[in-house]
Amino acid sequence: MVRNVYEGSPFYRKRLDDAGITPEDIRSKDDLRRIPFTTKSDLRDNYPLGMLSTPKSNLVRLHASSGTTGNPTVVAYTLRDIDNWAELNARCLEIAGATSADVVQVAYGYGLFTGGLGLHYGAEKLGAKVIPASTGSTKRQIKLMKDLGTTVICCTPSYGLFLAESAREEGLDPKEDLRLRIGVFGAEPWSEMTRKLLEEELVESAHDIYGMSELNGPGVAMECRAKKGLHIWEDHYIVEIIDPTTGEVLPPGEKGEMAVTTIMKEGMPLLRYRTRDMTILNEEVCECGLSHARIMRIIGRTDDMLKIRGICVFPSQIEEILASMENVTPHYQLVINRDGPMDKLMVRVEISEDFKTDRLTDIVDLQRRLENQLRDTLSINASVELLEPKTIPRSEGKAQRIVDMRKI
Amino acid sequence: MIKQFSVFLENSPGRLANLMGILEKNGIKVLAMGIAEAGNYGIVRMIVDNDEKAFDMMRKENMSVNQAEVLIIELERLANAVKTLSVVGVNIDYAYTMDCGRAVIKVNNEEKAIKALSEAGLKVYPTKC
Questions:
Q1: Between chain B's N and C termini, which has fewer beta carbons within 10 Å?
Q2: A319 and A188, same structural domain?
Q3: Is the CB of residue A392 less than 8 Å away from at least one CB of chain B?
């Protein structure tokens, strides 16, 4: 594989030459560590098609990211890439329990975004019936589900919740009037809390799917029926978990950034691509019987990561705690300070307007419980400041959420 | 039964001023007030002359406000009153005084408290001031 990339891609030939590596040097997974990482900026810098490992004439498809922060990243597929992509998405649907008897409604966007087409191909490959509903037109989505007997819905988890709510507004009970057996939810991070809601309100069984356009699109990893991590298709992708700061490969079971090397991709294979997603790799055989390793639900993005006392902290972890507790809102601010040699984390959070009490002890108790939860989840001590409702500035982006007062 | 408001406020300059300003602007009079604080926040408890208007105003300002039932008793015979309550095992959770020679008390058993106080010939006021 490394030889193909070396011979096919001028970009990688230079990379490997500069690092003094020949394809013959790479014979095992351990040897991979000698290869420099590929990053998102490499893709941007080589816009539009500087990363190809195959002549342009072999390509049958191009997708592109929205490019809101500069050049979009373009990804390219050969016919065999498209076929593999379909195969992997079919596997994803299958381990979630879908069969050729299912009616699969794909409510991910079709177009430059890979979500819609990826699952579309997967469902067809499985032999299921596909409804290519794409995004939006919620009323029509619900009508299609009802009239065509949709049994599998593929969409973002937040849209899943919105569908349930909209169906209710139309006087339907989604769990009674619709027949949704399986939900394939991805393209944004979600929590066990959301799973519980989705399974109460919309589908019998909600599954997390992982992917990114650089790795074909959806279908890189998927939750089986055991729902204890997402199986990553190791015959297509080699996963390494690395320290996001040093790039060192971490021992099994440690939390770090996922770097992926593609094995089967022809159009635009990637070596040690830094996904910027933080997770844990679990190589134990799953109770579902599959031996493909599992990644844990994505903990956060390296872009959002804070290092406090040497420990990685993600705003998403704090959001999840706040969402699970009564009497506080998801409106918070993180303040990091350095007190002597020690970093101190303070979580400032608005209490809910509906927090009804005339007793100070109830409020002190809420503060203590929050502090305990934060310590258990983050493994560092954080102090909590409770604020009056609506006092943190709204919708000013995540920069406002984090106040880092450390002078480093 | 007398209604008391409790409002969650941050323990910093200007927060109480803001609350009082809102009440004043709307012509609501504060008849009694007490503050309990813990670290960066506290609870302001108060009796006002117009419950409904005060509640609406504070909700409109997105305040975390709660209503609770309290008793108003005579300040002059306070020693007698608290002794009476202790004898029947009623606990006073908190208390503060009013301008008009009365005290606001929050008890853990109102019915029992009213009965004991009345039997001892002590006043439980049906009105505020």
A1: N
A2: no
A3: no
Residues B43, A387: C-beta atoms closer than 8 Å: no
Select the residue of B4, B59, B64 nearest A388 (Cβ to Cβ): B64
Q: Name the residue of chain B whose CA is nearest to A355's CA.
A: B64
B97 and B61 in a common domain: no
Spatial contact of B30 and B23, defined as CB atoms under 8 Å apart:
yes
Domain that holds residue A332: 306-404
- The Cα A97–Cα A99 span in angstroms is 7
User: CA-to-CA distance for A45 and B16, rounded, in angstroms?
Assistant: 55
In tens, the pLDDT along A171-211 reads 999 999 999 999 999 988 888 888 998 999 999 999 999 99
Domain hosting B58: range is 2-68
Contact A388 B42 (CB under 8 A): no
What number is the ipTM of this complex? Answer: 0.88
State whether A323 and A370 are in the same domain. yes
Cβ contact (<8 Å) for A363 and B64? no
Q: Region of A283 please: left (phi>0), alpha (psi -120 to 50) or beta.
A: alpha
Question: How far is residue A239's CA from residue A230's CA, in Å, rounded to a whole number?
Answer: 13
Q: Do A389 and B64 touch (CB under 8 A)?
A: yes
The pTM of this model reads 0.76
Q: How many cross-chain Cβ pairs, A to B, lie less than 8 Å apart?
A: 55
**Residue A6 CA: distances (Å) to CA of A10, A42, A60, A262, A270:** 7, 16, 22, 14, 11
pLDDT band at A54 (very low <50, low <70, confident <90, very high): very high
Which chain A residues in 18-47 lie under 8 Å from chain B, judged by CB atoms? none
Beta-strand relationship, B65-74 and B92-97 = unpaired
Residue A116 in tokens: 């819609």
Given a cut of 50, whether residue A120 has pLDDT beyond it is yes
Q: What distance in Å separates the CA atoms of residue A101 and residue A355, rounded to the nearest whole number?
A: 49
Same domain, A235 and A319: no
Put residue A316 in one of left, alpha, beta given phi > 0 → left and psi -120 to 50 → alpha.
Answer: alpha
Structural contact between residues A293 and A283, judged by C-beta atoms closer than 8 angstroms: yes
Burial of A194 (0-12, 13-18, 19+ CB in 10 A): buried
Same structural domain for residues B34 and B89?
Answer: no
Query: Residues near A394 by Cβ (< 8 Å), separated by ≥ 6?
Result: A331
Q: Is A283 on the interface with B (CB under 8 A)?
A: no
Domain count, chain A: 2
B3 close to A (CB below 8 A) = no
Q: Which residue has the tokens 């076929």?
A: A83
Domain assignment present for residue A94? The answer is yes
Task: Tokens for A77, please give them.
Answer: 């597929």
CA dihedral A358, A364, A365, A367 (to 10 degrees): 120
